[in-house]
Structure formats: structure tokens, C-alpha cells
Amino acid sequence: MAPHILITGATSGIGEACARQFAKLGYSLILFARREERLLRLKEEIEKMGITVITLKVDVQIESQVSKAVSSLPVEIKQSLIILINNAGLAVGKGPISGGIIDDWERMIDTNIKGLLYVSRHVVPIMQANQKGHIFNISSIAGKEVYAGGNVYCATKHAVDALSKAMRIDLVQDNIKVTNIAPGAVESEFSIVRFKGDEELAKSVYEGFDALNPGDVAETIVFAATRPAHMNLNDITIMPTAQASATVIHKSI
Ligand code: NDP
Fold it and tell me: N or C: which end of the chain has fewer CB atoms below 10 A?
């Protein structure tokens, strides 16, 4: 049986790019996201390459959905599940704590921290049984630094950074690698979600410099996933050349 990879948040951006790139390497895919039509469209497209794709409509904020989806996988697929990409995540809103919208905070905490934990809680025992695995946690430069208005989003990504370190300690005796990925600005649907559908504002984030594209991040993950068995890349920060820190971006406009 082909090796399997489980990717959360596969309907857009980094997750979708990972699906396409791992399919090219011959991995069978297990894809989680909430937008089912997009999942099915991607499945149809990738299956034309002769790759098996399982899509599951899962909201990672809801533990019962995660549990049901993971336990629905047949035993032989669990036995060949060797990579997990904990990618599903979002920023919602940007502004000071004093004016913070509680629902926005809950969505970020429930998706970026609790969702990643729920998926890991159900997938890690499978990898432990296999005594093999590689987990990629998609953090952010916002998990290394904080910036004005980024408070809760930055806190959730700092939590992901901490969880990557903690999981590495917890799982070292099980031959399971943990790689933390911390991208800078990537042009995806991220800013459209952050600014609640304001496409003009979202577009302005990426104006005047060459942002990363989701494929750049996926390529980096593929590189890390294809290192020899004895070697792990613990933590990778990947930035556009024009970005020096969370807040310093050299723009031509
Ligand atoms: P996109 O908005 O393009 O993609 C986000 C993906 O996450 C979508 O497939 C979405 O699918 C999925 N998702 C969101 N919430 C849930 C949920 N509750 N359950 C299941 N899936 C969910 O953004 P990116 O590709 O840029 O973001 C991917 C990751 O990268 C995120 O964790 C983000 O924080 C991180 N990141 C992004 C950066 C950027 O500049 N773009 C920089 C650094 C890190 P659906 O809506 O169908 O559920």
C-alpha cells in the first residue's frame, strides 16, 4: 500500500499546495476541511493522476468530528499513515485587545490550538503503533514574534511553536519526527479570511513585494519530509526575500 499523508485545511493555500505536491510524490491523500465541494473537486483532479484520495468534511474545532473521521479510516490505511500536516488555521481580525471581538478570539483559539491538539490526539497513537511518523505543525513568524494588532493570533501561533517542541519530546522514543514550520507572508486566502471578505484590503497586504506562494511552503515541507530516516529538521522559518521580520517588509510602493 502507498504511504498515506493526512493534511488538515486542504481546500486552499498551503494545505492544497501540499496535497498536490505529495500526490506528485506518489502519496495517497487523506484530506480534511469544512468546504466539501472544494474537497471533492480536488479529489477528482488528483485522482486523475492515479492517486487515491480520501476526503472528510471535518471542522477541526469539533473534537467529535475529528475523532469520528480518524476512526473511520480502515486499519490498513492507518498502518501506512506516516505524515500529518497540522495546517488548518486562521487569523480573524486585527486590532487591540481592548476592542477585541470575543467570537474572533474563540475561532482562532479553537482552530489553531485546540483543533491542532484534537487532530494530534487522534493521529499520534496511530503513529506510535506504527513506530514511525512525521508531524508538521504550521505555526508562523507570528509564533516567533508579535506585532501590533496581532495579539491573539500571535498567541495561538506561539502555542503551536511550544506544542511542536513539546511533541518532539513526547514522541522521541516512538521514532516520530516533529517539524515546526514558521512562514512569513504567504499569498493565499489567509488575509481574505482575516479581513472577513474585504478583498481589497486583503490584496493590499501583498502589494509592492513578492510574497511567498503556498507552493513555496509546500516545497519546503516536501524537502523536510524526504530527508533520511536518521535526520529531522526541527524548525524552519521561511520568509519572502523582501521580509526581514514580522513587521519589516520592503515594499516598492
Ligand atoms: P487559507 O485561508 O488559504 O487556508 C486555510 C485552510 O484552513 C483552508 O483550507 C480552510 O478550509 C482550513 N480551515 C480553517 N478553519 C478550519 C477548520 N475549523 N476545520 C478545518 N479546516 C479549517 O490560508 P493559508 O493556506 O495561508 O493558511 C494555512 C496555515 O498557514 C494556517 O495555519 C495559517 O495560520 C498559517 N500561516 C499562513 C501565513 C500566510 O501569510 N498566509 C503565514 C504563516 C502561517 P475550510 O475553510 O474549507 O475548512
Answer: C
